[in-house]
Amino acid sequence: MPSTTTSELIQALGLQEHPEGGYYVVTDAREESIPSPFSESKSRQLATSIFYLLTQDRPYGVFHMNKSVTYHVLHHGRVEYTLICPGAPGSAPSIEKVIMGVNAAAGERRMLMVETNVWKRSSLLESEISLAVTAEEKDSLNCLITEVVVPGFDWEDHRYMTQKDLLDLFSGQEKEAVDFAPFLYGSGIVD
C-alpha cells in the first residue's frame, strides 16, 4: 500500500469506528469452530483477525479484557500498550507498558501477545501526538496493526473495565486508579 495517511487507510481498508477506540475492520473469521478452553468449552471460531488503526483523531483505546489470547502484529507506526495482570487476592497487579514499533534496539516490538484475562489498552505515543501540528502531519499520524484472536473473538468473551474493576485492582493504591480512570469505557475518551 503506497500511502499511509489516515484518510486513505480508512477508505482503502473499509475501516469503521471501533467501540474500544480507533478504527477496525474484520479481515478473517475462520469457518472452523472449536471448544474454547477459556469460555467453558463453548464453541468459538478457530481464529478471527482485524485491522486495527489508531489515529490522531482517535488515538486511544479503552481498557478491556478478552478471554482468548490476542496476537498483535505491527504494519507501521508506533503504539503503546498498557497491560495489567491482576495479582493474587490482596496483592498489587503487575503493570507492563510495551511500545510496538520498529526500533528493536530501543526495546520496541513488532509483535505482542496478550494472554487471556489481561486488561489492556492502546494509545498513540503522546510525544508524537503533540508534534503533529499541521493537517498533513495529523493525517499521517497513525498506527496500523493486525490483531489475531485465538480461539476467535466473541463479544461474550469480551469485557470493558468498569470503575469497580479498577478500584478492586488497585485497592489501597488509589493513585494508580486515578491515572487509569480516564481510559475506562464511557469516560468520554473514545466518544
List the helices and strands and how they pair.
Layout: H1 6-13, E1 16-17, E2 23-29, E3 33-35, E4 43-45, E5 48-55, E6 64-66, E7 69-76, E8 79-85, E9 94-100, E10 111-114, E11 119-123, H2 126-131, H3 135-140, E12 142-150, E13 158-160, H4 163-169, H5 174-180
Antiparallel strand pairs: 1-2, 2-5, 3-4, 5-12, 6-13, 7-10, 7-12, 8-9, 8-11
Description:
By secondary structure, this protein is α+β, with helices and mostly antiparallel strands. It has one domain (6-183): Jelly Rolls. 18% of the residues lie in helices and 36% in strands. The chain has five helices and 13 strands. The chain has helices at 6-13, 126-131, 135-140, 163-169, 174-180, and strands at 16-17, 23-29, 33-35, 43-45, 48-55, 64-66, 69-76, 79-85, 94-100, 111-114, 119-123, 142-150, 158-160. The protein has a six-stranded antiparallel beta sheet. The chain has a three-stranded antiparallel beta sheet with strand order 9-8-11, with no helix packed on it. A hairpin with a 5-residue loop joins strand 1 and strand 2 (23-29). It is globular, with a radius of gyration of 17 Å. The mean pLDDT is 93. InterPro entries: Cupin_DUF985, RmlC-like_jellyroll, RmlC_Cupin_sf, YML079W-like. It comes from Crepidotus variabilis.
